[in-house]
């Protein structure tokens, strides 16, 4: 162990010295010496740490040896522990090396020793000498690598095994319990090398090779060797966190720690700052998370500098177990202050500027982290400027832009630079020297003087730097100043002043007097101040131009007066006067501008001023004067004007009917005098003239009076006074409006009847006259007063009108209006007539009448208004002819309308609609049914006259009887004239009523040929009469021939046929067409598909050919034969040049001309067909005889099988049918539930011309009934009875069925002869399914 530690130490020191040597190469000579000294100190410290670690290992070894010797001194305990150890293995003495070792064996290992007993022993020749020829050595391997400890022995017949820390591994080469261990080498040559795969820390131990005692010698034990496992550190933990960026301040000290992961041996840790090794570190080695593992913790003190900014601080861990050191790092963000600022001056002379100049100064500061913050100051006060940084060059820039002013002279501009880590602010400053001219020049004194007098003026400048000189100019003539003075000014400048006195003359008037300032510093600029010299002298002449004096002017005439003067300075101020008062324009803008005073106008030496006025009464005989200094001129105007004010005076203000009113009209002033007159609403009145009196404006006054008697009709009328001037041809008017107080009076236009529509609005207007206006409008209805504030459905408008909404018929009636004012009251009645849509109140439904009788359909309605022609009638039907009412009489009287039917017929039965329309929507409609009662009429269709059933007492049969009649019909049945006893369980009757259609189905169970093959009579009876029909119950037989064969279409190559099927004999029947061309021998056959079809198109014909066609019906018992003439027809196909169309039913009487010779191909086909038919007839005859025998046998067998279960099944079917029908709806139309009869034909498959037997089951499943309707009332669904024309026919056409829709049972009666045993009850069920196809 000590040797291994020394090797590790030397290896680590060598790596460290190599690293330090590389670092020293990158430093200066002085740094290298210091670094070398620090490296030697660090190596000494690590050497001492290694020695302390070695001492701990030696101490552990001594403790282990001591415990071993203690066990050897206590043989009893040793024997107790080793009592199961195999002989020859407990101990051994190495005489060759003189070493005696004892291996302690613990109790848990005794079992392994016992297991190894009896294993194969190593066979070594007895003659060989015992001993080790290869001993194990101390070995160091990396974790995960393979290790091998060598052991070569010469010990024939002995057992060899290894011990790990005293634990015997056993002599088995596979070493059980240690899957990574095995013995390697050739045992026959004495090779027992211990090989360990994928070493880990658990393999770090002491090992020895042991040879057991044998006959040739004692046991042998090799020296102990150590297998040392090197574990590299997996990680380094750096504080601050690795990979992060730390912010430090340059010059300050910081502590960084780096801790390694578990390793063996303890790794060395080195710190590098910006690539340079840090010598100031402290290292501690601690125990790891497991035994034998160590953790190294190193701490470094770092003082960053500005050059370290952005560089890495690296922690590097090295170990003998590592090929390449592991590293972690952090990025240093070092904060340091910027450099001093620098100001770039734009020019040669720093600080010298001129006022008005735009100065731009750039301040820069280099370096710094963060970059510098720049701030401009003016005399120590911050200025608002912007600054920016260039991070790539670490430069901060700030541009100062300012316009120089005179007050900036002597100002100090400075730029400061600092950042967050600056200890002091760095500054650079400049003092400004500003040159500026005088900002203004002022001339003191007046430039206005009377001619031939002196003028004294002073010229003063504002402060300037440097000073300026002054000089005077009059026009282009320079004047010499009388005195000049210089004083100190603002901002370090100077003020210049110059005084001037000189004599003015009239010719100097208007010349420019200038004071000029100049200096060598401002050679490109001139500063001046000028005045205009004003020499005063008086005017010479004054006069007025205008209309001649004494000329009459009409009021409103525009008159212009012009005042003129010659000469004078200043310009003469011409002033106008009216009767010694100054003339001025109106000051307020809303006053009419009757006077317009012009400005003083100058033309050469002549001055003028206009006075424009619109003449008025006040201008009559007025004197207008113009003055200019001591001069004046005057003129006088004569103005004619109408009355200035026309006033009407009354002796009373409150008037009532019958009062007397005295009115006086006064004309205050006019020139010339006027005539006065009176009128009232165009009616002239005579008045009394008053004596004249004095008037203003030197005019004339007039007065005239009238006396009036008042009435209510005079209220609001105007009494007008008119003043007329003959000379002026002008009239002035004034009126007096009469205010007569009187109680309310309704006007002639008042409406007393108002019409409204129900649910609409109504307005009851009020047209009333009163003075004063009515104080209140009160409405009452049926004794109740309507609230003036309004209600849910009414409102009283401001004019008194009553507004109603959502009007109902209950609002119809008289409304009383009460109007009142301070003079009295008035009342009126207004009627509201509410129109509403009609409503049918009485409608007799249904209305019954016997056939041939008379009846009225009465319709009574409630409506307003009731109009003579508001009743109308409609008949409901699908066809137009069904809706005609020509044979009926319409009667209308008041609120009742009648539709009168004379000689009632069945065609008139049905639904009628009463329509009432009085013009108010919507019209009322009422539905009424007319029921025409008639006696029963039993239907006698041919297919129902026969019913076939097997008479073997196993089958059932259903007889169907249907009749029409109203009211409901009662059915009775007889057999051969004898009434049937329906109490007999063999007979079951079901009766159905659908409107006027009534049906009775008689089901006979277990039909017996002896008892039931008879004539059954069905009788239908109601209160109006009766009718009957006969139905013959017969045995199953061949079908009857079809009838009515006819052609429905004909073409050159095909013919369309139609027929009526005959009685099918009780079995499913099919049809076959036999036809022949009369010119060609032989018959052709064509089966009709589907089998139950009654129309068919025969194709494959030839043009212009005569054919004879037969139709045959067949069932399982045979065919109908060809004797019946109704089942054969002859046709002739048209030629290709003939149009196809409806067939010609006249048979041809002679052969066509082109058919004299038989074509060859049809003859050959006919001959071949005959041969085939002859052969088929022979085979068919044989098969037919065989089939008949089997049918007979099947009938006998089924009779025996169903004799017991048949009645029970019929009873169940009857119960089920009755229950299902009771649940049906009563709204199904007649055509949906007509109970047709269907024979047994639909329950047999097709008879194929083959030898195979086909199964025909007797039961059917999966069928559902359609809705059936049963009458609950005598006349329920009467409208269904009288459906539109065309719905009755064909009532008895058979419904086509498709055998493919059936669900045949597969578990009963496989014998095909079961076709005779179909359940008749199921036929009766299907007879009510008109839409079902089997």
Automatic annotation (TrEMBL):
As for subcellular location, the record says: Cell membrane
Q: Per UniProt, which keywords does this protein have? A: Cell adhesion, Cell membrane, Developmental protein, Disulfide bond, Glycoprotein, Immunoglobulin domain, Membrane, Myogenesis, Phosphoprotein, Repeat, Signal, Transmembrane, Transmembrane helix
Can you give the residue ranges of the Fibronectin type-III domain?
1041-1135
> Which Pfam families does the record match to this protein?
C2-set_2, fn3, I-set, Ig_3
SUPFAM superfamilies associated with the record: Fibronectin type III, Immunoglobulin
- One cellular component GO annotation, for this chain's record? plasma membrane
Q: Where is the composition biased (Polar residues)?
A: 1215-1230
The regions listed as transmembrane in this protein's record are: 1160-1184
Mind listing the GO biological process terms from this record? cell-cell adhesion; muscle organ development
Q: Which Gene3D superfamilies does the record associate with it?
A: Immunoglobulins
The answer to whether the entry has keyword Lipoprotein is no
The main location is membrane
Record field: compositional bias (Basic and acidic residues): 1-64, 1197-1212
A single MF term (Gene Ontology): cell adhesion molecule binding
**Stretches the record annotates as Disordered:** 1-93, 1128-1154, 1197-1230
Q: How does it sit in the membrane?
A: Single-pass type I membrane protein
Give the Ig-like domain ranges. Answer: 125-222, 340-431, 438-532, 538-638, 642-733, 838-919, 936-1037
Tell me which PANTHER family the record gives. NEPHRIN
Family under the similarity heading: Belongs to the immunoglobulin superfamily.
**Briefly, what is this protein's role?**
Seems to play a role in the development or function of the kidney glomerular filtration barrier. Regulates glomerular vascular permeability. May anchor the podocyte slit diaphragm to the actin cytoskeleton. Plays a role in skeletal muscle formation through regulation of myoblast fusion.
Q: Which protein, by its recorded name, is this? A: Nephrin
